[in-house]
Design brief:
Mean pLDDT: 89
Low-confidence stretches: none
Number of domains: 1
Strand order of the largest sheet: 1-2
Largest sheet: 2 strands, antiparallel
Radius of gyration: 18 Å
Oligomer: single chain
Helix content: 10-25%
């Protein structure tokens, strides 16, 4: 799936949108997925990760090359 987290597998959820007049139509809720550079298996790679995995520490973000060069 394109809009899913590569860590926990969270993906789109389907349901109904119900208006005030109770007209029912299909709708989709997408997870908040961000493209981040991650240290995985000792290498840096870009992954699609949901914000819950980022907040919980399930993923270690890679240090950007710019800030590392600026500090040293």
């Amino acid at each position: 799936m394109a809009r899913s987290c590569e860590i926990c597998g969270k993906g789109p959820m389907h349901g109904h949108q119900i208006s005030h007049a109770h007209n029912v139509s299909q709708r989709v809720w997408y997870p908040n997925v961000q493209k981040v550079k991650v240290v995985a298996g000792g290498t840096r790679r870009r992954m699609k990760v949901c914000t819950r995995c980022l907040r919980s520490g399930a993923v270690v973000k890679a240090a950007s090359g710019r800030s590392a060069r600026a500090v040293s």
